[in-house]
């Protein structure tokens, strides 16, 4: 029996979209949410979009922090959204760094943006209809991912009104 891909999703880059990007953010005390991000996620939830974070985290591969450090941060982040009445449905990350001394599987390498590995995994798990879904990011690598995965792309800049941009494109 063929699966029905019925859910629509908005994939959000983390650093630069969810939070300010200070470089390799992995500690709660370094994490500063972007203005209106809770309002945006709540809007997406109310409009029946899954909200999934897609993030490269090469700091793990570089040895700057561990997967455990990242899990602690992401758990805290999800709780902050819940507290504000918004829901992050899932988070996918890539720890891969090509010059790392650590060994990475092919699957882990394919997760790194602009490869579409994280999108493929989310699509299967959440039965996502790609044609009705979006990627929101602040960098060219996010746009390349959107192209590779056949997602509609919304580019945001650090000083723009995210809520206005997203609500004007996603209804």
Explain this structure to me?
The protein is of the alpha/beta class. The protein has helices spanning 37-46, 58-61, 67-83, 106-111, 117-126, 140-149, 162-169, and strands at residues 8-13, 49-56, 90-94, 134-137, 152-155. The protein has seven helices and five strands, in the order E-H-E-H-H-E-H-H-E-H-E-H. Strands 3-2-1-4-5 form a five-stranded parallel sheet, sandwiched between helices. The longest helix is centred in the middle third of the chain and has 17 residues, at 67-83. The radius of gyration is 15 Å and the shape is globular. Helix 1 (37-46) runs parallel beside helix 7 (162-169). It has one domain (8-169): HAD superfamily/HAD-like (Rossmann fold). The relative contact order is 0.21.
What's the short story on this structure?
The chain has 171 residues and is α/β, with parallel strands linked by helices.
CATH architectural arrangement? 3-Layer(aba) Sandwich
Using the coordinates above, name the CATH class.
Answer: Alpha Beta
Radius of gyration over all CA atoms, rounded: 15 Å
- Judging from the principal axes of the Cα atoms, what is the shape? globular
**Helix residue percentage:** 25-40%
Instruction: Give the terminus-to-terminus CA distance.
Output: 32 Å
The fourth-level CATH homologous superfamily is HAD superfamily/HAD-like
Q: Give average pLDDT, whole number.
A: 94
* N-to-C series of helices and strands: EHEHHEHHEHEH
According to DSSP, the number of beta strands is 5
